[in-house]
Amino acid sequence: MYLPYELLLQPFVDYGFMRRALVAIFGLAIGCGPIGVFLILRRMSLVGDAMSHAVLPGAAIAFLLFGFSLTAMTIGGFLVGLAVALCAGTITRLTPQREDASFAALFLISLALGVMLVSWQGTSVDLMHVLFGAILAVDNPALILVAGIATVSVITLAAIFRALVIECLDPGFLRAVHGGGARYHLLFLVLVVLNLVAGFQSLGTLMTVGLMMLPAASARFWTSEIGPMLLFSAAGAFVSGYIGLLVSYHVNLPSGPAIILTAGLMYILSVVFGRNGGLVRTYLRAPHFQR
Amino acid sequence: MRSPHASIRIDNLTVAYDRHPAVHHLSGAFEVGSMTAVVGPNGAGKSTLLKAIVGLLRPAEGRVSLTGALADDIAYLPQQAEIDRQFPISTLDTVTMGFWRRSGAFGAIAPAMLEEARQALAAVGLIGFDARPIGTLSAGQFQRVLFARVMVQDAPVILLDEPFNAIDSRTTSDLLALVHRWSAELRTVVAVLHDMEQVRAHFPQTLLISRELIGWGETAATLTADNLARARHMSEAWDEHAPLCHVPAA
Question: What pTM value is reported for the model?
Fold first, then answer.
């Protein structure tokens, strides 16, 4: 039968494209994982998904102007995503409208704009790459982009960690001490868009959201402290990527969805067997401690 | 260490929601080291006044001026904290939020500061609760954590908005003892309260407000039957046909 080496390591030893895919996943995992945890804690879980659609007109405009240039589409997607995030964030701060509503409104406008631009120009095949990615086609420039974004993301998160936690936990406190909560929140939104755009070439924005949210959603079933949650999320994302790549290699399935489905399986296992609120633990109740 | 002395002056303050005043032409002062209770019927503008002092609400007219402190030197305990109790954070870390003025967004929390936070938790009767996630605390325990956070803020001005709502009497008397200590340290304390007995027993000064000033001064002299009756007559509903208010001559 298959040796562990053949199963787990040989594909990466033999093929450069597999190695590059793995490195890309590693970069995405350490960037997206922690971001996903904060999105969930902030009750912005669907915002990530909204943003992944909102970047479409940016990529579309870049495509119209520069043809299929990944650099242009990445920059275009980032700028539009940023604009949507900043507008929605500003509307939430300045008006009584809540964040989920302002995001919903703006991403829909952006998405419709993107669809209109795409249909106007006819061909949509290459544009769908942006949404669904092609991780096995990741080249060195794309790797550098992913690594760069992951580095910026992790360093920024570490720097604004305390402010972000307080802003999530007790925004009123930060307002009362004039701590400027808004700027940290907007900076966080920038990181969200940055990480989504990092996934453009590799997983595509739609699947990158999966890498962002699924390991983060699983994390709360294993720990109730934020530090371990961030680590679990990043590690879980990488492990899903690793297993997903192997599965797609051995069974000959598309890689992007395979990675996300692996993360999905991890999520379901966490819901059922998780130590911290998992179904088995909750419903097959252990006796309580005696007085 | 900052000098813990500050006073607050209110000058013809009007704070409005959608052009309807919640606080109407209020003037007066909270002196250094005073312990003032703010009382009045529902909708009288008590929380609004506190928010205007902290700077969370803009005055429609008039001003709030602080002497001896900066606007961000105020410890404010709101009525229903927007705190997400499900957030995965420990009790001790929640208390260390109070160090914001000293540490800022990026400064480290020194071991000495952690020790200070632990002592604050001990002072509110929560020894051994350091590592507990805040989601596992009862309402009374959590309110005590917020009091510990106020302690650690070490502010010259302390504003408490209905701090003893839904708290049992033992916890309330423990926390009241803390408030007395703050006043003894010459911090200016302002507390919105509903329990008249509590006010009469513990607070030397009272501001009785019912959108407009009814009385402000020594508690016994302010909380007369007459004044309380006048306060009760205020209407809670907005009058869409009220005449425009003109500024009274200074």
Answer: 0.85
